[in-house]
């Protein structure tokens, strides 16, 4: 049959390029090993001939879709599955054209952005509780020494941010994309700030408000279900953690201009967000970005750090501190992936199997991408442009002295 010859040629081509710890098992009992391994790390089972189209063009989008939609079954540890999937793509596809780091832009408006946020974050609070830290911080942790557990590293991340922007008692703080409220709660409790946190996720809004009430901080922390384009007033400090990925490349100057308009004249802001390492703002290679857009973050767009700095200045902001936390996010996503695996039976009680498979691939795949410099994570501290240089700290010592 035609497909048999085509499959055999493809297997031989991959074998010629690399010996992979992979076994392919077909519905008719045929087996193909891609390397000389007595027990391969990963086994892919194909229940029907129609699924072979996903394998013969094994982009990360095709492989991910086949797994998520149940077209194939995969056996093995998730980190090894991700590594083998990437190796299949790299040894089959050309790293150019549609499988290169293409740049796509989307039209953003309040309705579409709210819909995308709800898709990702309103899965289930119980779902996220099972694999996040105890404070439910869904962004890159900060491993000061590298050996911290996730709970400790996430608190250190929040303190690292609030120390960098020099939060003082009595100051007003706006957190754009506040999640389940961990940062504003910490800012009020430890740093004495008066906080407003906004989110478009109804699930996050409800739980964050409940947490504020339980902490007895309703007089110092306000949680709003609100779009960043609708905020008014002025704030001494502004944080945006893991949110600007939803803004859109074309909207970044407007977004940063909006932050500027909300800052007091001597205010300080921080943007903590994921960036692409492609200088043309391209997505993860081999169709990784296509998978994420379809299944994980609809209409998400990642800028290169160069574009972040440029559009901040276009928005009237001066950048005075930049820190790369790529290594920290690789570790964070790896821990999340391990937590999801360890509690898989409990997780499956909160979401259907399709959603579980999406997040299983996404978390482990993200760790892989951060580890290999496909994507990165930057904290950028800024203020209104044109301010006197004399008001800036002379060094970064204040950040680390406060942590001692």
Automatic annotation (TrEMBL):
The keyword Methyltransferase is assigned to this record: yes
GO biological-process terms attached to the record: lipid biosynthetic process; methylation
Boundaries of every DUF7884 domain copy: 15-92
Pfam families: CMAS, DUF7884
Molecular function terms, GO-annotated: cyclopropane-fatty-acyl-phospholipid synthase activity
Keywords recorded for this protein, A-Z: Lipid metabolism, Methyltransferase, S-adenosyl-L-methionine, Transferase
EC number annotated for this UniProt entry: 2.1.1.79
Family: Belongs to the CFA/CMAS family.
Full protein name: Cyclopropane fatty acid synthase-like methyltransferase
Species of the source: Collimonas fungivorans (strain Ter331)
Gene from which the chain derives: cfa2
């Amino acid at each position: 049959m035609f497909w048999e010859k085509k499959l055999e040629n493809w297997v031989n081509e991959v074998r010629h390029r690399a010996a992979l710890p992979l076994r392919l098992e077909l519905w008719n009992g045929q087996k193909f090993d891609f390397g000389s391994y007595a027990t391969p790390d990963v086994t892919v089972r194909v229940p029907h001939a129609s699924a072979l189209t996903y394998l013969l063009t094994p982009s990360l989008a095709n492989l991910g879709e086949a797994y998520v939609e149940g077209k194939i079954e995969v056996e093995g540890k998730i980190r090894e599955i991700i590594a083998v999937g990437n190796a299949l793509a790299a040894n089959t596809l050309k790293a150019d054209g549609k499988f290169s780091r293409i740049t796509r832009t989307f039209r953003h408006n309040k309705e579409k952005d709210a819909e995308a946020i709800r898709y990702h974050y309103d899965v289930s609070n119980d779902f996220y509780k099972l694999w996040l830290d105890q404070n439910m911080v869904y962004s890159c942790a900060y491993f000061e020494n590298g050996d911290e557990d996730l709970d400790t590293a996430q608190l250190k991340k929040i303190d690292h941010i609030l120390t960098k922007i020099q939060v003082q008692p009595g100051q007003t703080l706006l957190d754009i994309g506040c999640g389940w409220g961990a940062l504003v709660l910490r800012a009020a409790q430890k740093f004495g700030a008066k906080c407003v946190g906004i989110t478009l996720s109804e699930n996050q809004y409800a739980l964050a408000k409940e947490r504020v009430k339980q902490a007895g901080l309703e007089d110092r922390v306000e949680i709003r279900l609100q779009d960043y384009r609708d905020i008014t007033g002025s704030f001494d400090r502004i944080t945006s953690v893991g949110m600007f990925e939803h803004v859109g490349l074309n909207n970044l100057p407007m977004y940063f201009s909006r932050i500027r308009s909300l800052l007091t004249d001597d205010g300080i802001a921080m943007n903590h967000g994921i960036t692409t390492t492609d200088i043309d703002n391209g997505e993860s290679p081999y169709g990784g970005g296509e998978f994420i857009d379809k299944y994980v973050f609809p209409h998400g767009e990642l800028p290169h750090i160069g574009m972040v700095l440029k559009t901040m200045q276009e928005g009237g902001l001066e950048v005075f501190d930049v820190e790369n936390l790529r290594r920290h996010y690789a570790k964070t996503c790896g821990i999340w992936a391990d937590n999801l695996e360890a509690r898989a039976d409990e997780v499956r009680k909160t979401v259907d199997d399709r959603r579980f498979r999406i997040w299983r691939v996404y978390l482990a795949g993200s760790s892989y991408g951060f580890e290999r410099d496909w994507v990165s994570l930057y904290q950028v501290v800024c203020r209104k442009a044109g301010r006197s240089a004399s008001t800036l700290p002379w060094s970064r010592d204040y950040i680390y002295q406060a942590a001692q």
